[in-house]
Structures are given as C-alpha cells and as structure tokens.
UniProtKB/TrEMBL annotation:
Organism taxonomic ancestry: Bacteria, Pseudomonadati, Campylobacterota, Epsilonproteobacteria, Campylobacterales
Record-given protein name: UDP-2,4-diacetamido-2,4, 6-trideoxy-beta-L-altropyranose hydrolase
Residues where substrate binds: R151, E251
One GO molecular-function entry: hydrolase activity
InterPro entries in alphabetical order: PseG
Catalytic residues as annotated in Swiss-Prot or TrEMBL: H18 (proton acceptor)
Chain segments annotated as transmembrane: 240-262
Species: Malaciobacter marinus
Length: 304
C-alpha cells in the first residue's frame, strides 16, 4: 500500500482553508487505496482534532525545520508528500526531493516557484501558463475549476431547490477565523435592509467569537453557525453570499450562488484580480458604503 503524508497547518491566524481542502484531497487518495496521514504543527486554534475525527493519523511536528520533516518521511516510508504551506518554499522542496526521492504534490494559490512533481491550483481563474517558468519541466500542472476540491455535501445539494419565497437569505462567511474581524461590520450593513435573514458561518477558532456571539444575541435576523457541517445546505438555502476571496469562493462558485467577495488577505490577490477582471461583485477591502451599494445591486438582480 502506498503512503501519503500531507504537510499542512491550521490556526487562528493561518485560518482553516489549507486543512479543509487537504481533507478533501486526503479522501480522494484514501478512495484509491492509499494510506494517508497528516504532519502538522500544534498551533493555537488548529483543526488537528478534526483530522483525527476523520480517521487520519496526525504526526505533530515541533517546528518547520526541513530536517524534521525529511526524517518523518523516511521513518514513515512515504511515497507521496502533499505540501499545502506558504512556509515550505522551493529550496526546501528541492532538498526534500533530493534527500528522500519522494513524489511531491504542491498546492499553490499565489503563483510561487515550486520544486514538485505535481502542481495543483484549484481556484477559479487559475492560469496554467503562469507556472511555465515556476516549476520543473517534469512537473504536471493541474489548474482551474476542473480540479476544485469539494466535499461530498456540495454534490449532494447542488441541484436541490431550498430557497424560501418572499425572503432574502444571505450566506455570510469571512473565513473560519475571521482574522480581518469584519463580520460585525458586515452585519451592521445588512441590518439596514428589510426582510433579510443571515446565515453566519464561523468556527470556534475565531478569536473574536465571544464578541460576535454577544452582538448576534437577540437579533432575530441572524442565525449563527459555529463549526457547522451543513455549509452546502446553508448556501443552497441562501439568495446570495458575502464571502472572503478565499477557498470558500470555489464552493460558492460551484453552487452557482450570487456573491460579493471581499479580499481580506494578501494571498487572495490573484482571485481578487480575476474576479474584478470578470466583473464579479468584489471589494479590495471592506468598505461600508461600497458593500451597501453592492447589496443593492444583487437585490435588483434577485427581483428580476
């Protein structure tokens, strides 16, 4: 049996996107008969328990030191290393390859240089041509929506009609940890609109969760979901979405849900540029007046 090791991290500051998409990738390899495990740091607000609940072994690393990872690859006799980390760059990848001869698959969002056998950018608008000089000639490049990593729930709910008549329901998700701390600001803008209901999705790793809970308390128009497993269902029930220009946008796009995307981190720059070029409703950063204007635009589309 071939062995796969996934090297990725999650935390209150990093977010949960890397691990969530790697869990989808892990299942794909598991279904092919591979033995899959994770190597991760034990950071504050991590998803290591979630990985364990999905029945994968978790190997806790003490640091990002390359030699520690190389030792683990040799110890476990790994055949394929999947890297989803901004901290493990080209030189480290090449060193791992030369010292272990392991096959390497790198996930990338930002068109960085990689030394790998397979390069995966599953974001909408991913451009294969941009990687021509960034990866070795032997590298297989997998780009675009064809390779989008989606949990089974999205295929289950995609063609269902769960929307309520005579009510505008908004799906709101600004990352599992909302490191930009804009959920409440968005909710305040939404509160100005009539006949609106909000499905707000976040996680227990959100460092602003207590403040958010307090704000949502006794506000009938807000449904607060923490660590929910029903994201696809909540999307399908909604009229439109307000999300960060991150991994979750791939899910919204797949569900064919109208959306407003807000760039909340530097690694979302390429997705933001693509959306702007294609004339989607997008914001370079949160702005109260701009968001209000975009919500009005979406409401007009919904009325047609």
């Amino acid at each position: 049996m071939k062995k796969v090791l996934i090297r990725a991290d999650s935390s209150s500051s990093i977010g949960h996107g890397h691990i969530m998409r790697c869990l989808v990738l892990a299942k794909q390899y598991l279904n092919k008969g591979y033995d899959v495990s994770f190597a991760t740091l034990n950071l504050k607000g991590n998803l290591n328990e979630k990985i364990l609940k999905n029945s994968y072994d978790v190997h806790i690393l003490k640091s990002n030191d390359n030699e520690e990872l190389i030792k683990k690859i040799k110890e476990l006799k790994i055949d394929l290393l999947i890297i989803d980390s901004y901290d493990i760059k080209y030189k480290s990848q090449k060193s791992i390859k030369l010292k272990t001869d392991v096959e390497i698959l790198c996930l990338d969002d930002t068109y960085e240089k990689h030394y790998c056998d397979i390069l995966l950018n599953h974001n909408i608008g991913a451009n294969k041509k941009k990687y021509k000089s960034l990866v070795p000639s032997f590298c297989e490049i997998r780009c675009g929506v064809k390779y989008t990593l989606l949990r089974d729930e999205f295929y289950k709910y995609k063609n269902m009609n769960l929307k309520q008549k005579n009510k505008t329901k908004v799906f709101l998700a600004i990352g599992g940890t909302d490191h930009s701390n804009i959920n409440i600001k968005i909710l305040k803008v939404l509160s100005k609109f009539k006949n609106i209901e909000v499905n707000l999705v976040t996680t227990s790793a959100n460092s602003n969760l207590d403040i958010l809970k307090q704000y949502c308390k006794e506000k009938d128009f807000i449904n607060l979901y923490i660590d929910t497993n029903n994201i696809a269902k909540l999307m399908k029930e909604s009229s439109f979405a307000i999300v960060s220009a991150s991994v979750i946008l791939n899910e919204v796009y797949f569900m064919q849900l109208l959306f407003i995307a807000i760039k909340t981190a530097s690694n979302q720059k390429n997705i933001y540029k693509y959306l702007k070029k294609k004339k989607y409703l997008v914001m370079k950063k949160f702005n109260k007046k701009r968001l209000k204007k975009l919500i009005k635009k979406i409401n007009k589309r919904l009325e047609k």
